[in-house]
Hints:
By secondary structure, this protein is an all-alpha fold. The protein contains 9 helices and no strands.
Amino acid sequence: MPDVKHFDPDQALESVVRLFWRQGVAATGIQDVVTATGLNRSSLYATFGGKQELYRAALRRYLKQRSQPAFRRLAEDGRGLPAVADFFAGLIEARCSGEHARWGCMVSNAHAGAENGDPEVRALLDRHHRELRDALCAALVTAQGRGQLSAGTDPDAAAELLALLAYGVNLRSRSGADSEALHATVSAALRAFGGRIGV
């Protein structure tokens, strides 16, 4: 007779995402997961595997549910630099206020933590970086076509710089950086590329 699960694995995984996102892998034990999900250890192991497998599943869910939709919106937005500015404004708002304030980004937290030593985690982080950079580049190519960038600006190089800036916003916000200071830094970066956001 097949094993029937008496819980929602999707809901349980969302609880785990929030736990790892807020605390990180090193500070989270299996008992923390048990407490957060209300499941017993045997159910967790049978469904997800051990702690590392559970973390990988949580990171994949974070990318699918949170990162990738934002990247798609940015890449498909036809406004150019205003779209980039709005992307960063939304990022700063999410990191500095509301339910997830001061949690940082699960991906940026992983870049800074020991979890990036896992080759599968590293592959997910590299994929996230490519998708972030490509979305920024798409918006910057649009900006270039709309005459919003300074002559000679390389959209690929600028996208890489802005991707690194996004990681910086994530990490600085986690340590308590003021949202106004983060906005000022982003504005300065966009002005360096020509900054004609209103075009």
